[in-house]
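Page 42, continued from yesterday. The earlier attempt failed because a stray header line got pasted into the input along with the sequence. Redoing it now with the clean sequence only.
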Amino acid sequence: MGRVALLAAGVDCLYFVFFLAVDSPWLAWINVVSVAMYALAYRLARRQRLRWAALLIWLEAFPHAVIGTLMTGWDSGFHYLLLMFIPSVILTNARQKARAFVVALLVFLGVLDFLARELGPLAPLSANALTALKWLNITIFVTMFSSLASYYRQKIFQAERSLHAQATQDALTGLYNRRHFRLMAEQELARCNRTGNCASLLIMDIDFFKMINDTYGHETGDLVLTSIARTLKQGVREMDTLARWGGEEFVLLMPGIDAAEALVVAERFRQAVAQTPVIFSSGEIHCTLSFGVTQLEAGETLGATIARADRALYRSKVTGKNRVSSE
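This time it went through. Structure tokens are written below.
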């Protein structure tokens, strides 16, 4: 809203200079009032009083375009600026209200055309000045409409990225979520079955995580999750898929890695987490991970692969934690 107010104020400054140049001082000074209104709208927007800022912008822009049309004539192109209201109305109102506005605007433009031609220009300009004003208005309209379209396009892309992140990422750690991991793993399993390539799966569980939550609180527990997720993410390849599996568990899919190589990778992760303390307000916590490692086998389901990795993880847990087991 603030940017719109500044842009519109700049346009009115341009009109001020133009009308002074074509020797129409009365028309020029009208734009001083417009600049003052936009300055106030900008201040309101900065104070988050957006409804009042929008109202003030409408109260300036709409009458200004109408007055400009009646004063300089239909051929001056001031009426093009009224079309700028259509995108904002369509995007901020229900379909029926937006459609009613468009119809009302078309009727209004018809009436304005009739009045402008019947009354004649109330402050006529020379032919050259009128032509220059028309192309100035067309240029302003195209520039502002293009800027508005670019702005809405950027917002749409931001919304799409946000929705995609919500659908695929874990909100706390920023890793992929369980649903997206399953999708990626199913695709990789199908590829392995088709090409005969190998891939491995790691399931990791934070040791004594419940005790950490009970001792230090859930906020510190969340900090442990994000810290370990960051450590793990630093060690994965671009082609790997790392996800939060649920609670204090993580899962990693590694294409092109067989079981022996996966054990080496798991051991490297185990050491990295054990050697990276989690720093929090009251000190630091040294955390460890237990691992279950398995290789995807041709012809089996993803559920069978995960179950095998879970059994290996369980063996790591019951045999002392902070270790790597495979199956």
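Notes: The beta strands are 199-206, 241-246, 249-255, 278-280, 283-285, 289-295, 324-326.
Reminder to self: strip header lines before submitting.
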